[in-house]
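Researcher: Please predict.
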Amino acid sequence: MVTSKLKEYWNAWRRILVLSRRPDEEEFMLLTKLNFLGFTLVGGIAYIIHLVYVLLTS
């Protein structure tokens, strides 16, 4: 039972590795920009929430 689960798990990972590929430069730059945009938006929202909290409690 445990052996079959491990074999199934290994086969799933093997399938993922076979299907995966390295991104080209254009795709990599797009993903980098989107990540930076997401970090900036989340950080900006957190900063605004913190600023409102500080202003309301002071």
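Model: The mean pLDDT is 95.
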